[in-house]
Amino acid sequence: MAHNSKYKQLVFTVKDRCRVCYTCVRECPVKAIKIINGQAEVISERCIGCGNCVRVCSQEAKVYLKLTDEVTGLLKSGKPVAACLAPSFAAEFHSVGDYRRLVGMVRALGFTYVTEVAFGADMVARSYRQKYDDGTQKGVISSDCPAIVYYVEHFQPDLIDHLAPYVSPMVAASRYLKHRYGSELEVVFIGPCIAKKAESDDIHYALTFCELREMFAKAGINPEDVEPSEFDPPHAARGAIFPVSHGMLQNMEIADDLTRVDVVVAEGRRNFMDALNEYSKGTLKVNHLELLCCEGCIMGPGMSKNGNKYHRRALVSAYAEEKMKKLNVEEWENEMECAKEIDLCNSFVARDRRLVSPSNDKVAEVLFQMGKNDPSDYLNCGACGYDSCIEHAIAIVQGLAENEMCLPYSIEKLHQSVEKLNISNRELNKAREALKQSEKLAHMGQLSAGIAHELNNPLGVITMYSNLILDETTDENLKGDLQLIVEQTERCRKIVGGLLNFARKNQVRLAETHLEKFITRSLQSVVVPQSVEIRLDVDLKDPYLFMDADQMMQVFNNLEKNAIEAMPNGGVLSLKLRDKPNEVIVSVSDTGTGIAKENIEKLFTPFFTTKEVGKGTGLGLPLCYGIVKMHKGKITVHSNAEPKDGPLGTSFVITLPRNPEN
Ligand code: ADP
Ligand code: MG
Question: Does the pTM exceed 0.85?
Answer without folding.
Answer: no
